[in-house]
Amino acid sequence: MARNPQLNSHGGLRHLLSIEGLPREIVVAILDTAEPFTEVAEREVKKLPLLRGKSVFNLFFENSTRTRTTFEIAAKRLSADVINLNVSTSSTAKGETLLDTVDNLVAMQADMFVVRHASSGAPYLIAQHLEATRRPNVHVVNAGDGRHAHPTQGLLDMYTIRHYKRDFTQLTVAVVGDILHSRVARSQIHALTTLGVPEVRAIAPKTLLPSEVERLGVRVFHDMREGLRGVDVVMMLRLQNERMTGSLLPSPQEYFKFFGLTEDKLALAKPDAIVLHPGPMNRGVEIDSAVADGGQAVILPQVTFGIAVRMAVMSMLAHG
Amino acid sequence: MARNPQLNSHGGLRHLLSIEGLPREIVVAILDTAEPFTEVAEREVKKLPLLRGKSVFNLFFENSTRTRTTFEIAAKRLSADVINLNVSTSSTAKGETLLDTVDNLVAMQADMFVVRHASSGAPYLIAQHLEATRRPNVHVVNAGDGRHAHPTQGLLDMYTIRHYKRDFTQLTVAVVGDILHSRVARSQIHALTTLGVPEVRAIAPKTLLPSEVERLGVRVFHDMREGLRGVDVVMMLRLQNERMTGSLLPSPQEYFKFFGLTEDKLALAKPDAIVLHPGPMNRGVEIDSAVADGGQAVILPQVTFGIAVRMAVMSMLAHG
Amino acid sequence: MARNPQLNSHGGLRHLLSIEGLPREIVVAILDTAEPFTEVAEREVKKLPLLRGKSVFNLFFENSTRTRTTFEIAAKRLSADVINLNVSTSSTAKGETLLDTVDNLVAMQADMFVVRHASSGAPYLIAQHLEATRRPNVHVVNAGDGRHAHPTQGLLDMYTIRHYKRDFTQLTVAVVGDILHSRVARSQIHALTTLGVPEVRAIAPKTLLPSEVERLGVRVFHDMREGLRGVDVVMMLRLQNERMTGSLLPSPQEYFKFFGLTEDKLALAKPDAIVLHPGPMNRGVEIDSAVADGGQAVILPQVTFGIAVRMAVMSMLAHG
Asked: Are C139 and C14 in contact (CB under 8 A)?
């Protein structure tokens, strides 16, 4: 496999596996390509022929209706034929290997796989296999793998920040919450540093931070009030339900007290700071409703931009 | 919210939530609009471009393959992009609220929600929220909410009656069965009285009638033979499986004996009386196979007209 | 019902229920029709308008994501509107009969049913019912019924054999494995004898062979090495998981030792022999990975040809 499996020999996007290792120009090209797609969504007829006659497979080894829906809409608005495969209950149950499943779908002339998998690295494994079996025209989009990456989420967050703040190189950005278990956080941090954000802060209790997190280029804060002081952007993370009752946290109420984003904590950030959340939100756990529905939240624009960013990624992959 | 949340400021259809409160002219307009759509279904190419580029979300919080299918076909024949969301197993399980789910889908530029929900009022709540968040171009169709309403069922029943009987103002119509738990019955009774049917009869055992049912404008009968005498139209209701073994009824066999529609009971109605059933039928419980498959049954035409009525509702909503 | 329910009065294909009873000319016509469809799959825009505006229902009473996917892709590439119905969890659970479900979908103007059912004969029953209710323009494709038949699998296998070997009348073909429980084996054997293959061998342990299997026109072998000697084509069958631990077989390891296709066993076949498998494979049970991934395996081309064959069947049915 080439040194950078995400790029083709001309330096164009071949797969989207992770923001880590993606050149800055490609990240910017995706954001730029997404711009006109936001206008398509405003039209009477929300439809472009860019993927007409292409077969896009939503290959979900882990259930996620919301993420699948965003990719399904993006692909349908590009006129693709979309096939949803919830693989957990299917061939895998019959003992078929991941790569046999992929080989079969490639033999059905799949053009693109949107892959969600509980194991980190599964999309990379598929991309590697497509390389090994010489399938340069079949593309992989990582829609979330284990704790590793969720690159379209990271990209839509960057689109959102650029939309409201224009220049990345003047920003202080805080990522807040369960960074340890979050593929979203990883993708966000890589995207922010790639785009030249000078100060990225990681705010989390000690039990929810990966060891050596500083290596990612972040400043660590365990006190949320301290960490939020003067930031331009607050990126909240979702607290997975399974963490709330585990040994890592005392209780949702306790978590909210120290790491839930309330109006008084947000007041420590810059007055024009924006608040992001990848959804679905646990209101009253990691975010207070007053903030979620308040004037600084850009959580719903994130969703809108997310469709445009996914359309951009898919059309760039299909047209090399 | 406007006094009548189902209408826009020009008196056109904005949402379809319930037949209760729908002006007679709108009900008639839906039936009239549906007429040409029945012809589309006879064509070689069953496809019209009226909803091309629109995103229709089948938002089913309660499983119902049959109802979802009818809306899915109707939307696809209008060339819409259709996304099926079985929400029970998705975001709701992750703790997201109904309105957060709706906000997210609106942010993805949904044009229409077809909503099925176990709680009465859920589609109304969504419509109210769309009003509050100023989304006049997003529409809601109630596909069945709790015990409240199932308006497209009521409308397709009216289409069927009009097709066979032409003039509503000369008819005696009987609604038979579990009226207490039936959203279908409620929608039918409102539709029949709205369209000027002079005598609507409710035939049911005492345990399966809502208290003060007479307020809906029906005549109550506990003896089926008496209630069927001389009627033009017999509208059978489905007996839900869960009622059959409950404390409200002795047994399916006993129910059939007293409230099952048999040929000899039907003989008491007018000779040209028609028999409707919303499906799926419990043969031998609320209806005898001889009647279900007999010459007076119009149960399959109901299904055919149901597609046309749903196409009519969707196109009226989309084009104001 | 006509003597041959699969043919219309002009001798054209009306339903595809089983290869048994299908005239040789029809089988050949399907293979010939499929040829140009393999080219469609190579195009930039994999889309033909042959089923535009037709409603194809994937009516799966038994879960099979893989088979459903192949039909869904085939129908979408022909521009049909496709509706997936997983009926096990739907109306049937509500007590509706198979034929009531079919009647309802016909009333929704279904054009084609792709039927998968655990009971042998279910697609035939549906075809018979369509005949009885005078629906000559509604077509049935059997996508696997009980132990009876899986005709599109048999046809794609024939397409594959013809592609590599051209002339059926010179071949020796071995079908290997659990023939007793395999609808695939039954369809293959009928297809091979219909197309004039002079020697069809059935290789299986005694416990996995139907009684009187010789009546199908096969030569029986219980020793795999003996049976493979000199064959042109090896058609491996999948060993169902539920058989592996049952009383019919000692263990998967034991099965592999005697009936698993290894390189040394395959060496007994002709040097240019090809190996087929319907998938999904149990590597190390009925087939060794070295063979599955080796130069003689045509397992992935089978999948590719399968899409073309299904497109051929669907377009022949629709344009009868």
From this structure: yes
> pLDDT digits over C260-292, tens only?
999 999 999 999 999 999 999 999 999 999 999
With CA atoms as reference, the chain C residue closest to B65 would be: C90
> What is the 8-class DSSP label of residue B91?
G
Q: Are residues B250 and B294 located together in one domain of the fold?
A: yes
Q: Identify whether residues C198 and C114 lie together within a single domain.
A: no
- Considering its fold, how many domains does chain A have in total? 2
Minimum-distance CB partner of B282 among C95, C105, C106: C95
Q: Domain containing B68: what range?
A: 24-149+306-318
Phi, psi of A56, rounded to the nearest 5 degrees: -105, 125
Domain for residue C15, yes or no? no
**Which chains contact C through at least 3 pairs of Cβ atoms less than 8 Å apart?**
A, B
CATH number of A267's domain: 3.40.50.1370
Beta-carbon separation of B300 and C103 below 8 A: yes
User: Residue B12 domain-assigned?
Assistant: no
With cut-offs at 50, 70 and 90, classify the pLDDT of residue C1.
very low
Q: Same domain for C134 and C166?
A: no
pLDDT tens by residue, A63-81: 888 999 999 999 999 999 9
* Pair (A196, A135) in one structural domain: no
Q: What's the CA gap between A198 and A168, in Å, rounded?
A: 8
The answer to whether residues A112 and A236 belong to one domain is: no
Show the beta-strand stretches assigned E in chain A. 55-60, 81-86, 112-117, 139-145, 172-176, 199-203, 218-221, 233-236, 274-276
Taking CA atoms, what residue in B is nearest to C107?
Answer: B304
ipTM, 2 decimals? 0.93
**Is the pLDDT at B250 greater than 90, yes or no?**
no
Nearest to A304 by CA among B246, B107, C99: B107
Which tokens belong to C222?
A: 């219980």
Domain contains C5: no
Q: Do C280 and A105 touch (CB under 8 A)?
A: no
Report the pLDDT averaged over residues B107-122.
96
Residues C182, C243, single domain; the answer is yes
B120 and B161 in a single domain? The answer is: no
Helices A151-165 and A24-40: crossing angle in degrees, nearest 10, is 80
Q: Are residues B159 and B93 in the same domain?
A: no
Q: Which of C47, C62, C69, C243 to mutate to test the interface with A (most CBs of A within 10 A)?
A: C69
Q: Is A267 helix (H, G, I), strand (E, B) or coil?
A: coil
Contact: B283, C97; criterion CB under 8 Å = yes
